[in-house]
Amino acid sequence: MDEPTPVIELTAARKTYSSGQIEFEALRGIDLRVQSGEYLAIMGPSGSGKSTLMNILGCLDVLTTGSYRLGGDDVEQLSEAELARVRNHRIGFVFQQFNLLTSLSAWRNVELPMIYGKVDKSVRRQQAELALERVGLRDRLENRPGELSGGQQQRVAVARALASDPTMILADEPTGNLDSASTKEVLDLFDQLNDSGRTIVLITHELEVAQRARRIVTVRDGQITADAPVKAVAA
Ligand SMILES: Nc1ncnc2c1ncn2[C@@H]1O[C@H](COP(=O)(O)OP(=O)(O)O)[C@@H](O)[C@H]1O
Ligand SMILES: [Mg+2]
């Protein structure tokens, strides 16, 4: 039987940064396929190219050579407007710094990308409430980030990522600024999201965090050095 179209299909992906005379090859030939519903951790030491890879996967940056297909679409062929649509509708981003606006309540933060995404005003509030309910924050709609714990703030950020009903969640070191209790909160939430069918790509340099995923891809010096199901890694 034919495999379904992968959500992510990277082939011979290379990324070179140039600043002045100096060039640095941050991705050195990456091949990666991720199917719908997978929960993947990308692991590697600092400087190995994880964030570069996330920027490519999230259509925030483009490859120097090689190809990236997202849900079967050739990303290089998309116009700026189409790329913006992809980022808004198909990808939910979660960052280490929660990137919440401190002056806005939880639901207003969740609403924000829907404003950019031109979602109708009448449905934005409802969608925001639903997303916050899904992350267990139904009773914190009106609280500002400063009134929430780190784990709660990151869950607001996850709700914001979910509000556009994206195909995949891309999380770059989402627990990097969290204590162990809050880390558990966020990883438990990712489990639930994955159980309900979401594709998750979780970037981390911590093995304990990566082991909460189902598959671990290890990156070193811009290349994949290992790719294995979590049980095999843990054994
Ligand atoms: N904009 C940039 N210009 C030049 N070099 C960069 C840039 N971004 C990242 N790099 C370099 O690429 C390498 C990989 O960086 P990064 O993807 O941020 O790694 P990680 O997220 O694994 O720590 C590092 O050596 C970093 O210095
Ligand atoms: Mg990084």
UniProtKB/TrEMBL annotation:
Gene3D superfamilies: P-loop containing nucleotide triphosphate hydrolases (3.40.50.300). Keywords: ATP-binding, Nucleotide-binding, Transport. The keyword Transport applies. InterPro entries: AAA+_ATPase, ABC_transporter-like_ATP-bd, ABC_transporter-like_CS, ABC_transpr_LolD-like, MacB-like_ATP-bd, P-loop_NTPase. PROSITE patterns: ABC_TRANSPORTER_1 (PS00211), ABC_TRANSPORTER_2 (PS50893). Transmembrane segments: none annotated. GO terms for molecular function: ATP binding. The keyword Transmembrane helix does not apply. Coiled coil: none annotated. Residues 8-235 form the ABC transporter domain. Signal peptide: none annotated. This is ABC transporter ATP-binding protein. The lineage of its organism: Bacteria, Bacillati, Actinomycetota, Actinomycetes, Micrococcales.
